Amino acid sequence: MVDHAHNLRASFNVPTTGKKIKPIGVITRGTTGVNRLRRFDRWCFHHDRVRSLVAGYGFGTLALDVGYGASHTTTVEWGRWLHRLDSKMRVVGLEINPERVLPAQGGVSFELGGFELAGYQPQLVRAFNVLRQYDVEQVADAWNTVTSRLAPGGLFFEGTCDEIGRRCSWITLDATGPVTLTLAWDPWGVEKPSDVAERLPKVLIHRNVPGEKIYSLLAAADAAWDYSAGWEPYGPRVRWEKARLMLVEQGWPIEIPRRRVGDCLLTVPWDVVAP
């Protein structure tokens, strides 16, 4: 079994005062691809709290994509979605590897930086496929470093996905800490909801064992999915909608999207799955 608990380590005790702020983090593999984060991008665009946050600040909202990797692609794609909410929003990609810092393009600028956010106080921050390569014990430090630097009401999204974005998960955090966990997957790309477990956020991936909350949630989702097999002729999206409704009827506090999207989504309050 792969050991998900111990990988890269960063120093989160680096002073961030003075004229020059030292980036916090370590250089990761940085692999990425076109449309890899499309499920998050769509969810983010339609999410009520994100839309209210952007509207509340008016023009000039700032969004940071931390650790965008070896390519600017996913940052530019996120920027396109965000600019539909606020055409004047500033979108900045931050990379700790200076060789990956690129000239501005696609309405997005790129700078050297890490979890210290390069001195910014943004409304939105995203860090995908970054902490999955870190030591699990450093997750809380990374979260605190980011959330302590958010603008009032700001949100931080920390997650992971597979190489082509079929299976994706992320945690939404605000200044108080984790708020929700969202799982998203291609309706035709998985056989059962628990297949997404291989791409859980770092803090949860090694917790998917009997006795843990995340294991119980995924087991319940699989059971509801199996029970809803009669809806399969209508397609996997309809089948998942029926399975998710069953989970709600069983008492799981699942968020039901107001708008139907092409992805299968499962969002729960953080305390439902917290280790």
UniProtKB/TrEMBL annotation:
Matches recorded under InterPro entries: SAM-dependent_MTases_sf (IPR029063)
SUPFAM superfamilies xrefs: S-adenosyl-L-methionine-dependent methyltransferases (SSF53335)
Protein name: Methylase
Species whose genome carries this gene: Corynebacterium callunae DSM 20147
